[in-house]
Amino acid sequence: MTEVKNPQNQELTPELTEVEQEQQLSEQRIIRREKLAKLREMGRDPFVEETWNVTAHSKDIADNFEEMEGKTVSMAGRIMAKRQMGKASFADIHDKQGKMQIYVRQDALGPEEYDIFLTYDLGDIVGIEGEVFRTRHGEISIKVQTLKLLTKSLQPLPDKWHGIKDQDMRYRQRYVDLIVNPEVKDVFLKRTKIIQEIRRVLDQERGFLEVETPILTTIAGGANARPFNTHHNTLDLDLKMRISNELFLKRLIVGGLDRVYEMGKMFRNEGMDRRHNPEFTNIELYQAYANMEDMMELTEDVVSKAALAANGSMKITYQGKEFDLTPPWKRLTMQDAVKQWVGVDFDTITTDEEARAAAVAHGIEAEEAAKMSRGKIIAELFELHCEEYLDGPVFIIGHPVEISPLAKKDPKDPRITRRFEAYINCWEIANAFSELNDPIDQLERFQQQQLELANGDDEAHPMDLDFVNALEVGMPPTGGLGIGVDRIIMLITDAPSIRDIILFPTMKPVDK
């Protein structure tokens, strides 16, 4: 089908200068407004209609053609292509499911209605009633009997993004992106399937209870990250937007809700790149009488089933690289990873002084190393030199106690904790603990974090005495898990940037 590009039969092309393109767009806007004025003079204001009785959608019609052939249906959608052949025309109507061709004849609508239809532009939204049939060329179509303009588009749509050179414009004007790029809509439909499957596994298969916890808090705890700050005028109270919902969910475990989770937005006032957005979707869950190994099995189950629900397979391909998410996943200690890829064996390094010497020899500044303990140096060397090799899926275990203020110590080695991080494509996609439930130990770790805060670590965990009080009431042995939902969606949908799987990502204003 040959598309009618716009009312002037012109197409915006990259050969035009930006000034010429803007001038052309301005002319088209003027023409569309003139058409709107004429329609209103005729008593056909396209912004008056309040509803349209939709009885069928494009894909449903195509999938059930044998049953629907010859029947009259009512649908609505946006005109995305037109082709006139004298007293008959074809047009493509796009609705929420896809595309449907319509066949419009002058003798079916009447000469006046047909002439008015010919003035409609790409982007206009119409309602149609007609008979389902198949054309001589075999295309399933609707033979229109009634056609009504429901909304006049006053802004010409870009043609395959010609004239929009700035990639950011697709994120700023997501509503246009969704209209002209069907594959974008597919990504967000998959996003919904992934989130629905995560909830299904937790709700129906695992017996978890979904809850809601505060977004505005006086203490931004549960993670090491910088928060956004705000102020409540009525209470004259400084507040922070949550960086994690961990400590509230653990309070619910104390209260007897044995399996709880919350999926929602977290907010971290940190850098932005293709994997980081200041607000992002995360899920945290806590299960009483469970441990780190239980959380490993749950992580494998949730992530692999999410891929299966979205793509029909537990194997995914991300940017040309294949990953098999089928359980079980590999396990590797952080210390062994450092030994394998850095060449430093911390089995033979037992003091902070020895560790600092190794740190300096492998790229950590001497001044920085002097402030670090053995455990922090292990974690720093891992982050600097090992993460790039973790294609995964793999669980990294054996995190030093210094970087895990909320996890139980390993009874076999109190220098490390019962914690894991899951990696796929060298990205951390999940973090989990056998949760610390000793209130005395927890208070001591919070106090140590306050010393680090005083020494300049602005991401050290804040003191939360009410949480310590909750632990004193008594929290059963608990497994806790946090999964980066946006990163999982990126991997499953093969999205190169987090902005591609967030409908409205954080963007700097155009005039800034």
Shape: elongated
- Number of helical elements: 17
Mean pLDDT: 91
Instruction: Specify the helix fraction band.
Output: 25-40%
Low-confidence stretches: 1-14
Largest sheet: 8 strands, mixed
Strand percentage: 15-25%
C-alpha end-to-end distance: 43 Å
SS-based class: alpha+beta
Q: Specify Rg, calculated over alpha carbons.
A: 29 Å
Let me know the number of strands: 20
Describe this structure in words.
- It is a single chain.
- This protein has 512 residues and is of the alpha+beta class.
- Helices cover 35% and strands 25% of the residues.
- It has an 8-stranded mixed beta sheet, sandwiched between helices. Strands 1-2-3-5-4 form a 5-stranded mixed barrel.
- β16 and β17 form a beta hairpin.
- The longest helix has 24 residues.
- The radius of gyration is 29 Å and the shape is elongated.
- The N terminus is likely disordered.
Give the key terms.
512 residues, 8-stranded mixed beta sheet, 17 helices
How does the SSE layout of this entry go?
Elements: H1 18-41, H2 58-63, H3 65-68, E1 72-85, E2 88-94, E3 99-105, H4 106-109, H5 111-118, E4 125-134, E5 140-151, H6 168-172, H7 174-180, H8 182-205, E6 209-210, E7 216-217, E8 229-232, E9 237-241, H9 246-254, E10 259-267, E11 279-288, H10 292-311, E12 315-318, E13 321-324, E14 330-333, H11 334-341, H12 352-361, H13 366-369, H14 374-385, E15 394-397, E16 409-410, E17 413-417, E18 419-424, E19 427-434, H15 439-454, H16 465-473, E20 478-484, H17 485-493
Parallel strand pairs: 3-5, 6-10, 14-15
Antiparallel strand pairs: 1-2, 1-4, 2-3, 4-5, 7-9, 8-9, 10-11, 11-20, 12-13, 15-18, 16-17, 18-19, 19-20
Helix pairs in contact: 7-8, 8-10, 9-16, 11-14, 12-14, 15-16
